Amino acid sequence: MIPAETYLLLSAAIFCIGLFGILTRRNALIFLMSVELMLNAANINLVAFSLQHGNLTGQVFSLFTMALAAAEVAIGIGIVLVLYRNFTDVDVTKATTMRW
Amino acid sequence: MVALPDWMALAPALSLALASLVLLLADSVDPDTTNTGLLAGISVLGSLLSFGFAGWFITAGTGMADSTGVALFNNQLVVDQMALFFMAIVGSVTTLVVLASYDYVAEHSYQAEFFVLVLLSATGMSLLSAANSLATAFVALELVSLPSYALVAFLKENKGSVEAGLKYFLIGAVSSAVLAYGISLVYAATGVLRFDGVATAISSGTVQTIVDGSVQAQAGDPAVPMAILGVGILMIIGGVAFKTASVPFHFWAPEAYEGAPAPISAFLSSASKAAGFVLAFRAFAVAFPIGDLLAAGGAINWVMAFQILAIATMFIGNFAAATQETVKRMLAYSSVGHAGYVLIGLAAVSGSGEGLSLSMSAGMSHLLVYGFMNTGAFLFIALAEYWGVGRRFEDYNGLGREAPVACAAMTVFLFSLAGLPIGGGFFSKFYLFQATLNVSAWSLAAALIINSALSLFYYSRVVKAMWIEEPTGSRTIESYPMGLYTAVVGAALVTVLLLPGFNRVSEIAFQAAQLL
Q1: Which domains, and CATH codes, for chain A?
Q2: Residue B494 lies in a domain
Q3: Do the chains contact at B178 and A92, CB–CB below 8 Å?
Q4: Which of A7, B66, B84, B325 could make a disulfide contact with A48, Cβ separation 3.0–4.6 Å?
């Protein structure tokens, strides 16, 4: 069996790629894709350790995570759509009517 | 006395869910309805029922017979006194918010959807109070978040609202991904998601598994990798910090609260914050008991982490609030500051048992009082928006002469938020102070006092504008909306009544924390 550390490394790498995308990209849609990467990094952990531990808790929970990710994207696309209508752009740095 | 079936313990959450379904039904029968009275009526009824059930169960002592409360769905949900306490907070805040929305959404389209989203989000908060596993907690948390993203961006023609919705969604999506990753690491380390199982894994130091609903050590006794567990716990703290608008994930709060429709700002800053805290209280008290964690080789000292976060949140929230030019943004930062006060409930923990119950019950009591005074203050802003009063402090000049009742209520909220003995806020802050002294956490006590004194300065700016300053320009208030007035005055009455009634609240909170 492939040792558990390999999966942890893989998922950590994917999580960091997602985080990097969020911090550097300005397009709201790419932002959504990056969040998907981060969520799927969690899924890799859950499924890999479900096999490792020999119980199904992780696999079942990863199904929930996927469903929730899909719901989150549905809401996200809706917000991106109204963003485009109001600011005629999907650049997340353009929406700055308020400042802190 | 007839014993109710076990599933009835979830009645506070179920009545909210049922009301949202009835609203959807009403909406499908008549999709373009402008009958706000009917829609708001159903919502108020559902949330009042939820509050009523929670109050009834608390007084009837539901879940007190057994140390684990009423366990449902194989222990995934647990209805104990703490869950009911928070269900009562959620029910009361939701009632006030939907009552006030009656006037606020009257001119908007998609009214039914507005109320449905509020009630669905409230259902999530109610369920989150009872969540006893990282899986149910995550699902309930998303049920809280997803409708609230849509609610913040509800005024879709309004640039501020859309911008607020975008920022809230972006930061929310990232933090829920961080939380999911943290949960996956905790699962990787311990082999279970249920809170009691995680606690067993930490105390025994071996990976656990659940067979037929009971926690057992896994075959071969593999050891728990403490480093992975520590990183997982740290990420869960991040997820909680987002939901409660605490440092370092607080910066969405001022934007979201300023841009959102004011009743939604009230809802998010009171009920959503309380829901985030109940997850934190239960997870850190039950799943990650600090004594066992430190004994097991110091994976992470979360008490220390929360001490740093509490002090940083108090200072950043209050100092930023003091420099604001608009009233709504000032309240938004003050709500960040209040998250810092409640964090004391987790930061002033010493071991388990008595010390844990004292500090957590202080946090819980403050959340209850805060639920009324903060909701009321934001609903007053909703009233000002309804009248078309501007956003800056100067725009409130002389408002006390035109609307003395509402302004008197606002004065009660603000002074109670500051901690003057005019409302329950005085005793709840005093209780928090006592909790810090109990563990000799002098830095926390000092931060609490400095920030309370500072907050009096910026709260009284609003009071001064309303009562002392001369009105500038011509402003005529044409109508006195009934729903908003009822909600604001009701919240003010409860805030004042909590001054003599605080003893009872803190008793219930203490008992609830002890049973955890």
Answers
A1: 4-87 (1.10.287.3510)
A2: yes
A3: no
A4: A7
